[in-house]
Amino acid sequence: MSKVSIIGAGNVAWVFGQRLKSKGYEIREVCSRSEKKGRALAQELQAEYIAFNKKLDGHSDIYLLAINDGAIAECASLISSTKGLVVHFSGSTSLHAVSQPRRAVLWPLRSIAKSHQTDWSTMNIILESDSDLASVRAMDLVQDLGAKAVRMDESRRKQAHLIAVLLNNFSNHLLHMADVISAEQGLDPAIFQELITSSFLNKGPAKNRQTGPAIRGDQGIIESQVKMLKDHPEFQLIYKSMSDSIIKTHNL
Other CB atoms closer than 10 Å to residue 116's CB: what's the count? Predict the structure, then answer.
């Protein structure tokens, strides 16, 4: 039975910790800056809570650094000398933020939330490592999770993260804008669900599927809709920027 230590107590720590425990891994310890969150996760995983100011021993087989990107190097330094695999989950942070010799990046190509059910069978996990032993161990870990490993070097992983931000984070903010306007106008956001689904399920180059007033060069509609957003100047800026980009892309 592989033994696991987790640093962090947020969404990634919860989701990956619960999944590994369900697969027969022993979660030995949970370390977190937040004692309340750390103890809650440790109790959930039947593990020991370790205060953040204490060193983790080197006896685990796997160390999961499920923390913010900027804290990866600091948290890796909390681990005593170990032969275990040390993993971080960042899409844009260098593998070398981890100082231990057996290290890997396992970046899930999906937003992770403990409140949502995770379909592991459809999840791609971007894998990067710089040693054969770490690569084999990381691949075994992904397979045990039930996900699919996609190997990338650091440069391609960072490019993939940029694309993911555009596709997921930015589109989610557009959905938030739609929610706000729907609520203000008393519109049921559910009526737009089929439009959202069909927009993302369409195949082929996205450029060839572009519709709307910008690609038609309809400045009258564009100016009218910008005025409709007068109560949300930050939304106006996004609308104008997106419209200008569409017009430039299609050389209108």
Answer: 11
- Burial string for 184-214 (b: 16+ CB within 10 Å, else e) reads eeeeeeeeeeeeeeeeeeeeeeeeeeeeebb
Rg of the chain in Å (alpha carbons): 22
Question: Measured in whole angstroms, how far is the alpha carbon of residue 120 from the centre of its chain?
Answer: 14
Tell me: the pLDDT tens digits for 109-118?
999 998 889 9
HSE-CB at 151 with a 13 A cutoff on CA atoms is: 9
The token pair at 196 is 């959202």
Q: DSSP for 33-102?
A: S-HHHHHHHHHHHT-EEEETTSPBPS--SEEEE-S-GGGHHHHHTTBPS-SSEEEE--SSS-GGGS-SSS
Q: Please, which residues bridge with residue 106 across strands? A: 127
pLDDT of residue 116: 87
Distance of CA 84 to the CA centre of its chain: 24
Write out pLDDT tens, residues 192-206: 999 999 888 878 899
66 and 7 Cβ atoms separated by less than 8 Å: yes
Report whether 51 contacts 31 (CB < 8 A).
yes
Place of tokens 């600091």: 74
- Placement of tokens 């706000």 in the chain: 180
Picking from 69, 50, 57, 70, the residue whose alpha carbon sits closest to that of residue 7 is 50
Backbone angles phi, psi at 61, to 5 degrees: -85, -30
What is the model's pTM?
Answer: 0.90
> What letter would DSSP give residue 189?
G
